[in-house]
Amino acid sequence: MFSPQGPSLRELCVQALSSVERGYDLLAPKFDHTPFRTPDTILDATAQALAEQGPFDRGLDVCCGTGAGLTVLRRVCEQGITGVDFSAGMLEQARRADPQATLVRADARALPFTGDFDLAVTLGALGHFLPAERPALFEGVHRALRPGGLFALPIGAPAPLTSLWHWAELGFDLAMVVRNAVLRPPFVMYYRTAPLPALRRDLTAAGFTVDTVPLTAVGRHRDGSARCWLVLARKPY
Ligand SMILES: C[S@@+](CC[C@H](N)C(=O)[O-])C[C@H]1O[C@@H](n2cnc3c(N)ncnc32)[C@H](O)[C@@H]1O
């Protein structure tokens, strides 16, 4: 799963025993060599789907990490792009990757923007928010968008019960429940807490109208269904 430039098992364990913010600070220099960075296939498919919804002026990448989503915004936004993350280490890497982007250190549960953006994206980060924290996240994105603005989130479709991924994700989440029951600070990262119906409900409650498109270029499950979907949440005029 990891290239030779990626983190060692020991480094990953130290990260997992830290808070989310500190964990990412530690992982930042090697993050792009891990499978946790959103893969290019998903970035390309997201950019293609968004190109059909655009053009957009200003874009925001929520939980930008080292800047994977900023590369999508660069392709579909005609004006400035901004990344927000609470890890200073990840933002430092994002700065190297895209020196022209505006980078803001802030907690995504209290986004410091009002009506500034035409497009917001978030990739690979929803598992870091407990379901009870999603309203604050989604309300902040809604506030950050201008009327008519779009919030786009690529999400994986649940793996079938017969697939190894299903059981690997379940095992990971159970290990996290145990870890967080006995250790402080918690490291909030769960694979299975953000299914599409719950996201649709929370986005609607935050004021969005919600649509989905399959990202079939990312691949299909054996039954032919798309492995990845793009959630398109529109702030009404
Ligand atoms: C798995 S990484 C994903 C990074 C990038 N979006 C990508 O797709 O490669 C998750 C990122 O979310 C950030 N993050 C997690 N919780 C956050 C919060 N409450 N506020 C801001 N950033 C947060 C972490 O610091 C980390 O950079």
What would CATH call the class of the largest domain?
Alpha Beta
SS content category = alpha/beta
- Tell me what the CATH architecture of the largest domain is: 3-Layer(aba) Sandwich
In spatial order, strands of the major sheet run 3-2-1-4-5-7-6
Give the helices and strands as they follow along the chain.
Answer: HHHEHEHEEHEHHEE
- How many strand units? 7
Strand content: 15-25%
Molecular shape: globular
Number of helices: 8
- What is the first-to-last residue Cα distance? 44 Å
| Low-pLDDT sequence parts | none
**Fraction of residues in H or I helices:** 25-40%
Largest sheet, in brief, is: 7 strands, mixed
Radius of gyration: 17 Å
What ligand species are in this complex? S-adenosylmethionine
Mean pLDDT level: 94
Per CATH, what is the topology of the largest domain? Rossmann fold
Q: How many separate domains make up the residues?
A: 2
CATH superfamily of the largest domain: Vaccinia Virus protein VP39
Describe this structure in words.
The protein has a seven-stranded mixed sheet, with helices on both faces. Strand 1, helix 4 and strand 2 (81-85) form a beta-alpha-beta unit. Helix content is 37%, strand content 19%. The termini are far apart. It has helices at 9-16, 20-27, 40-51, 68-76, 88-97, 134-144, 164-182, 196-205, and strands at residues 59-62, 81-85, 102-105, 117-122, 145-156, 209-214, 228-234. The chain has eight helices and seven strands; from the N terminus they run αααβαβαββαβααββ. It has two domains: 1-36, no CATH class; 38-158 and 195-234, Vaccinia Virus protein VP39 (Rossmann fold, 3-Layer(aba) Sandwich), CATH 3.40.50.150. By secondary structure, it is α/β, with parallel strands linked by helices. S-adenosylmethionine binds next to helix 2 and helix 4.
